[in-house]
Amino acid sequence: MRIGLYGTGQTGLDGIVGDVAEAEKLGLASAFLPQLTAWDALTVAALAGQRVPRIGLGTAVVRTYAQHPLALAGQALTVQAATGGRLTLGVGPSHREVVEGVYGLSFDRPARHVREYLQALVSLLRGETVEFRGETLSVSGTVEVPGAEPPSVLVSALGPVMLGIAGELADGTVTVWAGPEVLGEQVVPKITDAASRAGRPAPRVVAAAMLSVTAVPDRVRDDIRARFGAAGEFASYRRLLRQQGKSGLEETVTAGDEDLVAATVRGFGEAGVTDLLVSPVGTDEERRRTLEFVAGLA
Known about the structure:
Elements: E1 2-6, H1 13-25, E2 30-33, H2 41-51, E3 56-59, E4 62-63, H3 69-83, E5 87-92, H4 96-99, H5 110-125, E6 130-133, E7 138-141, E8 152-155, H6 160-169, E9 172-175, H7 180-197, E10 204-213, H8 217-228, H9 235-243, E11 254-256, H10 258-271, E12 275-280, H11 284-297
Parallel strand pairs: 1-2, 1-12, 2-3, 3-5, 4-5, 5-8, 8-9, 9-10, 10-11, 10-12
Antiparallel strand pairs: 6-7
């Protein structure tokens, strides 16, 4: 299992790139950037790739409803060219609360939308001309970025329908807030079966997890509750929490001593996760200590 960094605790661009550089220095395999409502993840990945020469770079995730496949294919291939082919492109539909409440778009039939989006996007990334008229989108065109290889494409998928689509059409899935149990019992088997039935290679299962080496775990969880508690009301996350027997996203955080964190990391590997993305949380010192400790495990 490869271990990478997910997100950073920085708000400034130089700080974000500095965290990516530190992750490379520690020997981590990758640095994935979230796409929220601040920095553009792909633009930052291109900039980081210019300054940090070796580490893998990824997005988790670019929202499909917000960007047409032609536009995203051009941007992703540009990042590939800028970084020497180190990009993993994570995409996903996001949530009804975001798509309808923030963008003012319809979230009708998200699974159909993702299927059609991937059918177009994957072909565009290969440099193929696409003439596609689907139920949720239309695409007509080609993207040409000389020297850029198609990036690995991951889909944020947790439920059986989306995991089936990810296994059939993409290279794997990327998850957040999902622990080793639900990954090992549900996510890994379902996406692996879907990929096998489609004649595709074994999929990547990329899981993001909040970890903290700390003497005060309650403080860490209280902070996560304050920062992310509202997201726990999103329908997909409510279902995920019920599956794990948890009531809030803060309960998915592993916070405690080194033995606890190491056991959690091992659990992800035993579940079949191929890439663990560590989001270190807590104070600056706790975050630094956590990342260094987990890098040592890698």
